[in-house]
Design brief:
By secondary structure, the chain is an alpha+beta fold. Helix content is about 45%, strand content about 20%. It has one domain. It has two helices and five strands.
């Protein structure tokens, strides 16, 4: 009986070994490929973070510019400040002073002209305003402006 039981045990063990998957060692090439994939993935994430930071910085600068322009327009609309023929707007954009200057030529019809302001940020010369302007096809109409955008 002992022989049969030990022989049956050997058969069972052999069947278990045949059914179990063979575990092989990790090849060096597989490790290198995995490391290369990890490094490329980290580089891609780093580039995306860099792009995100640049976009956030540009958005911050644009938001600040819009807020400064809106506050200046609100002051103008309320009559706190008056626009003169040569108006200048200056502010801090991205840590650097920058500005915009609008000049109307003295030869402009109706000089000094008023300004057209809108709550959504439009600022324009108010010419001819509410008056009707009839254009002569044989005569030129010359409107001269100079817009200067600068940073320091």
């Amino acid at each position: 009986m002992r022989r049969r039981s030990s022989e049956a045990t050997r058969r069972r063990r052999g069947a278990q070994r045949a059914a179990a998957p063979r575990v092989r060692g990790v090849v060096l090439l597989e490790v290198l490929i995995a490391l290369a994939i990890l490094i490329l993935g980290m580089a891609a994430v780093g580039m995306q973070v860099n792009v995100g930071l640049r976009v956030a910085n540009n958005s911050e600068i644009a938001t600040r510019a819009v807020m400064l322009a809106q506050s200046k327009l609100a002051e103008l609309d309320a009559g706190i400040v008056q626009l003169v023929p040569n108006e200048e707007l200056e502010g801090d954009f991205g840590g650097r002073p920058a500005g915009l200057r609008v000049e109307i030529s003295p030869s402009h019809p109706g000089f000094p002209n008023g300004w057209c302001l809108r709550h959504y940020g439009f600022l324009g010369v108010n010419y001819p305003g509410l008056d009707t302007l009839r254009l002569d096809p044989h005569r030129s109409l010359r409107l001269k402006y100079r817009v200067t955008v600068y940073d320091r």
